[in-house]
Structures are given as structure tokens and as C-alpha cells.
Automatic annotation (TrEMBL):
Residues 1-107 form the STAS domain. Belongs to the anti-sigma-factor antagonist family. Pfam families: STAS_2. This is Anti-sigma factor antagonist. It comes from the Bacteria. GO terms for molecular function: anti-sigma factor antagonist activity.
Length: 107
């Protein structure tokens, strides 16, 4: 997993899973704490995430809210969009451009 960017926009790539969760959590929390306004997470380079990785995203979302910021997801890959819809998290998280639930392939 790799994360690059600053306190306004981060690009997350690779795998966001149990092995990378602690490092990702540290980077995301620092970015939330050090900035103002929206924090954009570009997930277009993300290969996969597991429940732990999704928990890291949700933790950053909650922390951003407590800091008066908003976490915005950008470039969410289709299979991860399906997971957000299945867990109904697409209703809670801010997703740039939204998720067209009707257009997602059924699994």
C-alpha cells in the first residue's frame, strides 16, 4: 500500500488491508488533523481493501467530522463501490460524483 499527497488530497494505492491498516490510519489521521476543509481520498489506484481497510476509511471519516472536516472519496473502483452499496456506507460517506447504484453490475 502507498499513500501520497498532503492534508488536502491523498492518493491511496495498492492494498488497504490488515497488514497496511496501522500505517494508513496514521497517515490519514495526520492529514485530517493538519488540514482544513475537505480531505479528498483518491482511491483510483487502490487494488483492494478488506474489512480492516474499510474500517480505516470509516475511522478517518469520523475523525474528520469531529474536526469539522469532510472526507470525500474520489475514483472509487467498481468492485469497491459494490461493497459500499452492500454495506450501505455509500449513504454515509461523501463520494465525489456519487455512486450510480443502478449502473453497478450485479454479483
Amino acid at each position: 500500500m502507498h499513500i501520497r499527497g498532503d492534508h488536502a488530497e491523498l492518493v491511496v494505492g495498492g492494498r488497504l488491508d490488515v497488514r497496511s491498516a496501522a500505517d494508513a490510519r496514521t497517515v490519514l489521521h495526520t492529514a485530517v488533523d493538519d488540514g482544513i476543509g475537505d480531505l479528498v481520498l483518491d482511491l483510483s489506484e487502490l487494488d483492494s481493501w478488506d474489512a480492516t481497510g474499510l474500517g480505516v476509511i470509516m475511522g478517518a471519516h469520523r475523525r474528520a467530522g469531529r474536526c469539522g472536516r469532510r472526507l470525500v472519496l474520489r475514483g472509487v473502483p467498481d468492485r469497491m463501490q459494490r461493497l459500499l452499496v452492500a454495506t450501505r456506507l455509500h449513504r454515509i460517506l461523501a463520494i465525489e460524483g456519487g455512486i450510480g447504484v443502478e449502473s453497478l453490475p450485479r454479483v
